Amino acid sequence: MTTLDTAALSQLFSLARTHNGFASEPIPEATLRHLYDLMKWGPTSMNCQPARLVFVTSPEGKQRLAATLSPGNVEKTLAAPVTVIVASDSFFYDHLPTQFPAYDARPIFAGNANLASNTAFRNSSLQGGYLILAARALGLDCGPMSGFDADKLNASFFPDGRYHVNFLCNLGIGDPGKLFPRGPRLSFEETCRIV
Amino acid sequence: MTTLDTAALSQLFSLARTHNGFASEPIPEATLRHLYDLMKWGPTSMNCQPARLVFVTSPEGKQRLAATLSPGNVEKTLAAPVTVIVASDSFFYDHLPTQFPAYDARPIFAGNANLASNTAFRNSSLQGGYLILAARALGLDCGPMSGFDADKLNASFFPDGRYHVNFLCNLGIGDPGKLFPRGPRLSFEETCRIV
After folding, report:
1. What pTM value is reported for the model?
2. pLDDT 10s digits, B71-107
3. A39: which chain B residues are within 8 Å (Cβ-Cβ)?
4. Do B42 and A127 touch (CB under 8 A)?
5. Strand locations in chain A, DSSP E?
6. Of A3, B77, B80, B113, which is least packed with CB atoms within 10 Å of its CB?
7. Contacts of residue A12 in chain B, CB cutoff 8 Å?
8. What is residue A48's DSSP assignment?
């Protein structure tokens, strides 16, 4: 394996930005399926794959979502062609017999609510990171958001209580005119050590 | 922006594997710094950047780490040139005044332990996802792991209690002869819907 070229590294990381405005062109369903077909390969603990995605694209879905958002997130979410609800499945372990055939791992989680909940949170967040980078790899811009009322959103989109929202992410072609100034980043010395 | 080419998408996602054996060549410190300089740009809520990384490379560090691992993770971790401890900083919000200059967001977290802990867990996991994909983008193979004793590891590497381990990730050039069979993935229909 070799390192990706500078243009690819820039598109994924160094020049990518969190967008607050999006062009109105819809994203074809084929692109959403391609997006999932990339991100699904990202590793999860015991291949547990707890992430569940709702691609909100219709005006009705957007209005339902908007009712759960912090005021500052409403306008950009209504404008984005797609908003992804990244959720986690609290019964992800029911899929382990087919997804992790090495041994019967289901009882490890079925009998330990705290482990199951931590595993769902950690791994659906990891998968959320894969989603963001897979979207950028496909030429889409992302606007991830944590400003919403989780209880309201869960009641509206997941009324049976099995799935729980983790975070939201707008997708589309970003409008550079609506970017905020770029935040700084902590240095290697502030965050890393080598032992 | 355009989509990355098939070779890049394969290297990041579709053909990448979780490795269990690694060549012994060390990873230069410059590569670890490059890795951080890519992953640091991944978005976090309010630019909170809670992830803290310990790159364990020395035999002494590896032995200290091995004492905290599940038996199945010891041999591959000792063999990998680098094992990253992906941790989170429980006082990440002390950096918000410099990292998120828009307004004073520190009190939002300083006064709400549950929100702070969820934010640290979600965002350090997201940053762990960025780490894995940045490593692959640089031509490194990854072996992420959740099989360890978190209390023991925290006591050994973070005795002051401020940082908490999230997960571990071996890095190096993978040995294809030590791969396990690839697990399946849940389908779009099982995990996604469009509304």
Report:
1. 0.98
2. 999 999 999 999 999 999 999 999 999 999 999 999 9
3. 13
4. no
5. 51-56, 82-89, 141-145, 163-172, 192-194
6. B113
7. 4, 38, 133-134, 137
8. -
CA triple A103-A110-B143, angle to 5 deg: 50
The answer to whether residue B161 scores a pLDDT higher than 70 is yes
Report the distance separating Cα B169 and Cα B131, nearest Å.
9
* The residue to which tokens 């549950």 are assigned: B114
CB B56 within 8 A of CB B84: yes
CB A164 within 8 A of CB A150: yes
Within chain A, how many helices (H) and strands (E) appear? 9, 5
pLDDT, tens only, A89-102: 999 999 999 999 99
**B121 interaction partners in chain A (CB closer than 8 Å):** 121-122, 125
CA distance readout (Å), B154 to A110, A191, B69, B165: 26, 16, 12, 6
Interface ipTM above 0.95: yes
CB-based contact A192 B138, cutoff 8 Å: no
